[in-house]
Amino acid sequence: MTTINVKEGSPLQAHIPEGNLPDKWTIYKDKIRLVSPANKRKLDIIVVGTGLAGASAAASLAELGYNVKAFAFQDSPRRAHSIAAQGGINASKNYQNDGDSDWRLFYDTIKGGDYRGREANTYRLAEVSGNIIDQAVMQGVPFARDYGGLLDNRSFGGVLVSRTFYAKGQTGQQLLLGAYSALNRQIARGKVTMYNRHEMLDLVVVDGHARGIITRNLVTGEIERHSAHAVVLGTGGYSNVYFLSTNAMGSNATAAWRAHRKGAYFANPAFVQIHPTCIPRSSEHQSKLTLMSESLRNDGRIWVPKKLEDAKALREGRLKPNDIPEEDRDYYLERRYPAFGNLVPRDVASRAAKERCDAGFGVNKTGEAVFLDFATAIERYGKEQAHLKGLNNPSKEEIKELGKKVIEQKYGNLFQMYEKIVDQNPYETPMMIYPANHYTMGGLWVDYDLQSNLKGLFVIGEANFSDHGANRLGASALMQGLADGYFILPYTIGDYLADYIREGKIPTDTPEFSEAEEKVKKEIDFFLNNNGKHSVDYFHKKLGKIMWDKVGMSRNAEGLQEAIKEIQELRHQFWKEIKVPGKANEFNQELEKAGYVADFLELGELLALDALNRNESCGGHFREEYQTPDGEALRDDEHYAYVAAWEYPAKPYERYSKPVFPSESILHKEPLKFEFVTPTTRSYK
Amino acid sequence: MSILKSSVEKKMGLALAGLFLVFFLFVHLAINLTLIYPGKEAFDAAVEFMATNPFIQLMQPILFLVFAFHIYMAIYLELTNRSKRSVKYVKNNPGANSSWVSRNMIWTGLMIFGFLLLHLYNYFLPFKTQNISDHYELVISLFKNPVYTFIYVLAFVALGLHLSHGFQSAFQTFGVPREKCNRPLVICGNIISIILAVGFSAIAIYFYFN
Amino acid sequence: MKLNLKIWRQNGPNDKGRMVDYKIDGVDSDMSFLEMLDMLNEQLIAKGEEPVAFDHDCREGICGMCSLYINGEAHGPDRLTTTCQLHMRKFKDGDTIYIEPWRANAFPVIKDLVVDRSALDRIQQAGGYISVNTSGRTVDANNIPIPKKDADDAFDAATCIGCGACVATCKNSSAMLFVSAKVAQFAKLPQGRVEAADRVQNMIAAMDAEGFGSCTNTGACEVECPKGISLTNIAILNKEFLLAQTK
To answer: Which of A72, A142, B89, B179 would bridge with A50, disulfide CB 3.0–4.6 Å?
Structure first.
């Protein structure tokens, strides 16, 4: 075991209500304080980020009567990256009568998270999951339906039931547009003031309470002060610390990181998810990676050649995938995990792909790709359709045509997207896929109320850490974002706000606001006047490479220590050599990016520290030193059944002149107690 | 136009007027066809009927108003729509996504309007103001003029083009379900365009050569 | 490959704007169009010039943030494709490429190729929703059976990404396809019927007020729409509008 010196602070309390697991949320709701409608009108709430979590929260809070100010860096709330979620949303409706229940959804989620999530939060998530579907249907979200007019479901990785509701491959889009429509209704009513193309650059803390934010109007460059009785962050994850990820180009950790610098603890940063089914990278100019929905694993079979020489021939283009006979293919997931096969959880599937490619079986020119093959499914569906249509002795071609139609119905838009990017027809030749960064389970620490250690700061959706442990199951991100926004935060925030009904408007002409504004302006001035020699992307790409190589899918102590050193050097170089063109008081995309990368350069170091501190393998965090003889993750419940929440080790400002070292962060542990489930070794065999 | 407040209502007004004019054109074509068959007596009788029948007399000002409305509304909408893009594209390639006819309804329309004025001057005014003894002869004589016949045929080619888009477009504007009806409507619109364009032109060309 | 780029540069809303020529070399055919612009921008920054501002975010064709009028067409020459999904293999070595912002008075230019599309949001705010509060106590989702065909049609309309290509490409700068997609989505669903009359009237009024033109059914929008939103939706909007007048 590598011992590193980590300063430890006081342990954290999650404020989990008493009672039996299924009763906790009910007990909690019955006990919290309520705010009367007349008083809600006197309370202001800032919501930063308007994706699934932020938009649903802003809409719900406004419906309740609070005055909401919502902020998005895009030109419209409809563009938040929740929109790109493809596969679906889980809910324990048990419409398929396959034995699903709240308990099973909870159990699958906590097990899928490798027992590093909080029991009570995860159960609550399962409990409200059904309400999300009811709510979304009432809002006009067009979920897929059966011929009988009822909702259809499909299956996702890591579970044995069909509980995923979907709208073709665009479920995230449809749910986001649902939340967006609810938000629009409140904007029209005047209960939400929407600030598009605005970016949060600092959190204002007054007497230990979050009381406002500093924003930059991205069109005019104006720095603005906004105050409120509570601040809600729904600003998403930090996958872009890896430069290449499936996140949007603009997805950033700036709001969350600046709150962290102001005192909010950052929990489990090492828990990042590498999604197994992304389109492999093609060239060094690649700006982002594109995800192919996990739902494809319902019907696609993953394989590489059995023979090394076949793999080599594929890489050199001498062989086509369809030339390799069935007996020379290695369906390695079906081989290793017969019970779950191609539907093992994401972390397991990703590592297995990396293992095969590292062993030399990669199938594209970079050697970093495996096949996802639909030929079997096309044949199976084709036969089914032929039978349905009463065709006797259909020819192979007929079966293939019929099968292709079914596949097109289910995944048409994904196949089209693949063809556009790769220029190959996936109906005829297998898709090529490779893992890529996709989601971050870690995030700002919150208690059961979704409140950070900083009072008045609430964190929802991907931006918090709470529900997915060390690995998130497919179709759970949408569930969590909407559960937090529609059904959890609107209750819990009231309990906090009940203390401030006599507070009145929070003034913005206080020293706390002035200082925050001034420091933000100073950093912007620094960027624009530094006149270095490298662009922002130069540093971002370098950081991404360190992160992917040494803090990526599998990690070891030596690599992590190197990574920390390299990031520190890169950060030092960044503050010396960064070059940002343009002016402060105008639309300036390079300036926006400079801020993101400055934050990523700190976050990356903390991520590596957290990975180094956690001497075990669990979920998305795989330490090479800790694995079973057959290469599976080896957890250490005795020493690491805790949430690692990190406190920023320095003063929040002027980092361009006074270096900060996130690897000196202070660790606050929240012990994870498992009262209702017994952590076992995850087995998908 | 304060009655038709929204852009959709204005479009509907335009479309309704257009369809009414198509109906009128068929009546007009039917009368014109009597020039060739059965011939002079039938044509004169038809003219007589049109000049005296009280229902037709009632319809005349309505027809006039509909024409005026269609033309006014078309020009109004065109000018309004043009004003919505002050800075034009440096490079635009509309041919890639839409037909020439659909984009140039205003020009085919204005050609027809121009012809309409000429037509009113040549026929309608003399019919109304002078005591014409032989309507048949008046019509035939003009077709002997090559320039006039050329303009006449050109106008009806423009009309055919105008209707090949306008007819189905009008139904779209009234919200006729497209999935089932679009193809039949397009075919129907094309047939109507051809009947009217070929019908009117053929009569002119027939008399030019005979 | 080598390319000649002609790009619209405009310093701000009040600047007049002009086309500027750029030459770029070493473009890989596997690059996306926006990655080609990234490359140009890196070169401009290195030379000490201001990079070209353009909107983009998800780069997988779903957020609707990217725009660009490329060689006279919205989102370029490829069909059913957003600019971020347009790949350089669609161009040839030596090609000249014109790159302009969406042009419509309702979409004022913010900078270079970036325009303000907030008018589309305001249209949605006028009625693009079903008035149902968050309660978790609405009826069970399966209490409202919806014929599969209607659900599928509603979905197809709902896939609009709000990019504004329809407006940019329409000779009248009309937003009818955009508005109709939302109206049609809700018109097909029983939940949406309750407010159907008000919705269509309010959204059309907002559309007119924002300064979009009217529809002349040229069909250009449908062809250029990266999500293939059908002209059928405009017919549905018109029908809904007529129905609303009778109420």
So the answer is: A72
* Sheet strands side by side (includes A198-206): A198-206, A209-217, A223-227
In A148-253, alpha helices (H): 171-189
Cβ–Cβ below 8 Å for C57 and A249:
yes
Q: Does A37 touch chain C (CB under 8 A)?
A: no
DSSP secondary structure code for residue A298 in this structure: G
* C residues 48-67 lying closer than 8 A (beta carbon) to A: 48-51, 53, 55-65
CATH code for position B133? 1.20.1300.10
| All chains having 3 or more CB pairs closer than 8 angstroms to chain B | C
Measured between CA atoms, the residue of chain C closest to residue A73 is C57
**Domain end marker among C94, C111, C128:** C111
d(CA A415, CA A373): 12
pLDDT for the residue C168: 98
Distance between CA atoms of residues C60 and A420, nearest Å: 10
A397 falls within a domain: yes
Residue B2: predicted pLDDT: 53
CA A234, A237, A243, A247 torsion-angle sign: negative
Question: Minimal CA–CA distance to A344: which of A300, A297, A306, A376?
Answer: A297
A374-393 pLDDT tens trace:
999 999 999 999 999 998 89
Indicate the residue type of B87: V
Whether A157 maps to a domain, the answer reads: no
Q: Measured between alpha carbons, how far is A83 from A51 in angstroms, rounded to an integer?
A: 8
Does C227 contact A at CB distance below 8 Å? Answer: no
Query: CA B4, CA B107: separation in Å to the nearest integer?
Result: 24
Query: Domain boundary at A384, A412, A437, which?
Result: A437
Confidence of residue C138 (pLDDT cuts 50, 70, 90): confident
Catalytic residue among A154, A301, A346, A655: A346
Contact A238, A603 (CB under 8 A): yes
Q: What is the secondary structure of C59-111 as a DSSP string?
A: SSS-S-----EETTEET-SSTT--GGG-BGGGS-TT-EEEEE----TTS-EEE
pLDDT band at A472 (very low <50, low <70, confident <90, very high): very high
Degrees, nearest 5: CA angle A484-A489-A491 = 130
Is 60 exceeded by the pLDDT of residue B1?
A: no
- Best CA proximity match to A264, nearest among A221, A213, A312, A307: A213
Given an 8 Å threshold on Cβ–Cβ distance, is C136 in contact with A134? yes
Asked if B94 is an interface residue toward chain C (Cβ–Cβ < 8 A), one would say yes
The least confident of A179-183, A350-354, A675-679, A681-685 is A681-685
- Residue A587 contacts C, CB cutoff 8 Å: yes
Position A1 scores a pLDDT of: 57
Catalytic status, residue A346: yes
Tens of pLDDT, residues C139-186: 999 999 999 999 999 999 999 999 999 999 999 999 999 999 999 999
- Among B12, B80, B93, whose Cβ lies nearest the Cβ of C71? B93
In whole angstroms, give the CA distance from residue C148 to residue A9. 57
What is the ipTM score, two decimals? Answer: 0.98
Decide: B and C in contact? Rule: 3+ Cβ pairs under 8 Å: yes
Nearest to C213 among B81, B174, B179 (CB): B81
State the count of interchain CB pairs (< 8 A) between B and C.
Answer: 136
pTM: 0.96
Q: Which residue in the set C100, C220, C230 is minimally distant from B94, CB to CB?
A: C220
Q: Which domain holds residue C82?
A: 3-111
CA dihedral over B112, B115, B116, B119, signed as positive or negative: negative
pLDDT above 70 (res A466): yes
Instruction: Report chain A's mean pLDDT, rounded to a whole number.
Output: 95
Yes or no, beta carbons of C124 and A184 under 8 Å apart: yes
Structural domain boundaries, residue A293: 276-437
